[in-house]
Amino acid sequence: MIDDAVRERSGALVQTLLDSIRIASVSLTGEGIGDQVAFLRKRLEGWGFAVEVHDTTSHPIIYAEAGPADAKFTWLLYGHYDVYPADEKQEGWRTKPFEPVIEGDRIWGRGAGDNKGQHLAMLGAIATWRETRGELPVRIKLILEGDEETGSVPLPKFVEANRARLKADLCVYSDGPMFPNDQPVLLMGVRGNLGLEFISKGAKRNLHSGNFGGVAPNPTLDLIHFLAEIVDRDGKLTVPGAGYADVKVAPADLEAVRTLPVDHEGFRESVGADPTTGSDDALFHERLMLRPAFNVSGFAAGYSGAGSKSIIFKEAIAKADVRLVAGQDPVAVADAIRAHAAKLGYKGIEIKSLKGTPASRTPLDHAFVPMVRDAVAKGFGRDPFVVPSLGGTTPDFVFTKLLGLPSIVIPLAPYDENNHAPNESTKVSLYLAGVRSGLHLLEAMARA
């Protein structure tokens, strides 16, 4: 029955996604945000939701409810309608980012995988249930935010202010990539993310390197040396109290990643290089899910144009993101890095925190895991892996830490979705499998 219902409505389900992708909704610039909110409000009301639009200090949060108020089970569903910026010319897109194109099983366009093709699959399941069966068997509470790509800053405040209204039995939502070869997974957590800016200052003006080289401060070299002193060549943060060695990984988590496969050929094709973990598949997943990672995402210093300039520049700037794991507090990690800079004598380097999202985890053996696993297995026609964590970050902590809920993430985007990069895509087949999974999940929740 579910397969037939989704097959008969596949054209309309896909069209909803295409219509959403055409609305830019870029949180960094605000482009298209209002139009996307209006689009979602109209669709949600048509699907039987009572919809509220809450203004924030940034972009609106859409909150909606549907289903019987006295239902025995309540599902909290989350998604984000904002997308990462897309520069068609500078980045080298093969299609126009906000004009979706279907080629075979692929849907190309910004937001196709992150996150429109994911939350709309789950909403498509709810819409299909209403159309084919009438009233929902459970209460559904929905949060759609417009600031995930810039750190979800307004979301914790919204959740804190609405704790009573957001009471639920389980949070299940879709985000992140699946494993290679369209292998479904259940993610029982996410890594956190700390954004940092390093500003290294020297003289009050740029100096001639012949007249002052060797006697004047050199902020570019200072910053290079500092980064080299806090991170080893493998990307491991070595700062006492915040580093790789300070993280204790639970034996159950290590066991969970021990048998997970790595598609080395697919990785090589997608990335253009081999994994830094070599042939050790367990270490690959341990590093990606269970260990922190330090990345320099930007570095600006000196002159890099044609020819050369003999100048000691007065300032150098670097930006970094630190992926955090369970037990690491973003504020404490930032403070530890500042303290380490002072201890090493880098007085000219200012360290600013740009954003901080804690890691989040739900136990691998939680009682709701079999229910969600079976629903996804039916939706995809193959058993999902149950893994400790997503390598990336979502605001999962607001559900697990602020609301105290178990939270399970079901990725619906392909491994090579290229989110945050040119030529983002998803697959029609995975999108529809997500709809089927959502319908099976509704059936299972009704029996819970």
UniProtKB/TrEMBL annotation:
<protein>
    <submittedName>
        <fullName>Succinyl-diaminopimelate desuccinylase</fullName>
        <ecNumber>3.5.1.18</ecNumber>
    </submittedName>
</protein>
<dbReference type="Pfam" id="PF01546">
    <property type="entry name" value="Peptidase_M20"/>
</dbReference>
<dbReference type="InterPro" id="IPR011650">
    <property type="entry name" value="Peptidase_M20_dimer"/>
</dbReference>
<dbReference type="GO" id="GO:0009014">
    <property type="term" value="F:succinyl-diaminopimelate desuccinylase activity"/>
</dbReference>
<keyword id="KW-0378">Hydrolase</keyword>
<keyword id="KW-0645">Protease</keyword>
<dbReference type="GO" id="GO:0008233">
    <property type="term" value="F:peptidase activity"/>
</dbReference>
<dbReference type="GO" id="GO:0006508">
    <property type="term" value="P:proteolysis"/>
</dbReference>
<dbReference type="InterPro" id="IPR002933">
    <property type="entry name" value="Peptidase_M20"/>
</dbReference>
<dbReference type="GO" id="GO:0046872">
    <property type="term" value="F:metal ion binding"/>
</dbReference>
<keyword id="KW-0479">Metal-binding</keyword>
<dbReference type="InterPro" id="IPR051458">
    <property type="entry name" value="Cyt/Met_Dipeptidase"/>
</dbReference>
<feature type="domain" description="Peptidase M20 dimerisation">
    <location>
        <begin position="191"/>
        <end position="346"/>
    </location>
</feature>
<dbReference type="Pfam" id="PF07687">
    <property type="entry name" value="M20_dimer"/>
</dbReference>
